[in-house]
Amino acid sequence: MKEMEVELTNSRLNGRLEVPGDKSISHRSIMFGALADGKTTIRHFLKGEDCLRTIDCFRKLGVKIEETDEEIIVYGNGWEGLSEPVDILDAGNSGTTTRLLLGILAGRPFHSVLIGDESIGKRPMDRVVAPLVKMGAKINGRNGGRFTPLAIDGSKLNSIQYELPVASAQVKSAILFAGLQAEGETVITEPQPTRDHTEKMIEQFGGEVVRRGNDIIVKGGQSFKGTDVYVPGDISSAAFFLAAGAMAPESEIILENVGLNPTRTGIVDVLIQMGADIHVQENNTEGEEVGTITIRTSNLKGVEIGGDLIPRLIDEIPIIALLATQAEGKTVIRDAEELKVKETNRIDTVVDELKKLGAEIQATEDGMIVYGKSQLSGSQVSSHGDHRIGMMLAVASLVAKGTIELENPEVIAISYPSFFEDMKQLIKK
Ligand code: S3P
């Protein structure tokens, strides 16, 4: 295990940056490209480890995928173009690959086995397996199908009316993929709106999906047509630089071509509520919203976060916790139990690691409470193998006195391989 020393105390950050492509959209572009008829060309694809796992799985399923520096080209042959893999499909650290693939494989007429790394092996898959089994899927795994490895015997699926017990775009998307192959009309009811990239992509690839209130409705038997996809910058990656720009002295960062899908922009709303000097300019685009975000050094104040906002910023809570340590007053994050089943238990890992840096922070049943503003100081900390914890701790080095020794920083490549280069490029000491 590697260790990295990061000392950025009092650095000024200045400049323009285009963060890598959105992780959720990158995964889905490979999936729809593989299921469509004809060629799909993807630009600004995220070549992070998670999305490369999705490419690897679809190659094992018989789909031709070419990679160049600029583009990924997927040669889809429709649903029938997928063939039985002779090898195990390994999703690595990627929950999106595992869960969405389950929805696709459940209806394909062959046998497949899906595994992931140690973290994936602990994450609940029954939330996807249970509705798929109700649709007629045959999936077996450890603990009655709760954990990977999972063996799938594809079968004919029937449609379902399903109320999601948790607000999860991965579960919604898995059922959508199954519903697209099923007999009849599938209706999914969400407790709260979650990211809608799958729905947007169904339409982009020539399919049909209806949103009515909290219901998402798809008809089975749909086919798709290959198309060109531009993947906007990942707002979940941009979030680390939004926080960095707000906290570092005399700084201004301009983030270009960032995805601004309203189901993902909770971090912008929270920064505004915290009193940040932030400006958003939306471009005129069709499909996924894209724009420029400018952030400057800010005087921040504590906030209360909960309810419908949570799914719109679920992956940003680690970096929001760090921001809260630098905000005047108390920040309360509630309704975020889902953090416990992310790449790590992010309530525990955020609280434990920030405490090591001297933060006043406490875990609660469904979130955390942070008391600011506190002077952080360098210490030995760990990413716990979680990319977003690693990036949050690296950004903490901007406001901590002394050196942060970050264990296992290489995990950051799961979602942001050029994170440290991008950070360096903005530093104007
Ligand atoms: C994702 C959905 C979210 C998110 C994850 C990516 C997706 O997970 O945390 O990083 O691409 O659909 P849940 O569906 O578990 O909320």
From TrEMBL:
Binding annotation for 3-phosphoshikimate: 23-24, 28, 168, 170, 315, 342
EC number: 2.5.1.19
Class in the EC hierarchy, top level: transferase
Gene3D superfamilies: Enolpyruvate transferase domain (3.65.10.10)
Family: Belongs to the EPSP synthase family.
UniProt function note: Catalyzes the transfer of the enolpyruvyl moiety of phosphoenolpyruvate (PEP) to the 5-hydroxyl of shikimate-3-phosphate (S3P) to produce enolpyruvyl shikimate-3-phosphate and inorganic phosphate.
Protein name: 3-phosphoshikimate 1-carboxyvinyltransferase
Source organism: Bacillus lumedeiriae
Taxonomic lineage from the root: Bacteria, Bacillati, Bacillota, Bacilli, Bacillales
Name of the gene encoding the protein in the UniProt record: aroA
